[in-house]
Specification:
This protein has 274 residues and is α+β, with helices and mostly antiparallel strands. The chain has seven helices and eight strands. Among the domains are: 48 residues; 132 residues, Chorismate lyase (3-Layer(aba) Sandwich), CATH 3.40.1410.
Amino acid sequence: MPPNSAAIAPTTWQGVALGADAELRLYHPDPRAARRLIDQALAELHRLEGIFSLYRDDSALARLNRQGYLADPPADLLRLLGDSLRYSRLTDGAFDPTVQPLWQLYASHFARPGASAQGPSEAAQIGGVHAGEGRGEQGEGGFGVEPARFRFGAGPRVLPVVRLRRLRLGNNAPVGIQTVHLRLDRVPGLLDGQPIVGSLYAHLRQHYGIAPLEATEVYRVASVAPDEAALLDVPAGSPAFVVERTTVDARGPFEFTVSTMRGDRYEIRSTLRS
């Protein structure tokens, strides 16, 4: 700065940036030049917010989280996601670019009166982290899609997966919530493709040649977690069936699904013969 810079009055801007109050203060001997520089900085800020902001519903990142795909993603977003995945691989997942839904889960948990100091339940952390819910008129809601990591089987390896969540309907009323984990290496491009409409297995067969051979299901009785109660239109703690299914094809396990079904709307029937 020149020796008399202390006498220069600052040109300032105050507003909201990145979801918080912000201020720019620029000392420049020419106020018009200072205003021009601030306008240029704000234009770049607004451009970047239009891509990366989690506080703007219309940002590219918010739309990606909401829809599970972008038809024409900005180059800056692709570059950042590519760098993020590279650092995730280099750190064996310690750097996790998918952490935002988990942060939202904890934020919503502790925002509730009387929330447990231990944080969200393990079930909520495994099955409750999601990009969005879909509501349909008949049969099934739409899919909310996001990347994640999951442990298949008893082995120590944690694999990248695509996680899909849908709301199951019966007579236009919610019956259950189904969370599907698909091995990412078996469904390349699923996060970038068109929305899944109709049967998931038909989509996997058509686009990835995956033909299920068998599945193992485990049934247990549980209660509806608070984060799922609103979606199922029941009070938290209501009885539920939890169904865990592992599905394999000729190459091995490719899917692990957890379904939480309303106890008052779901029943299991079986026929036993000698």
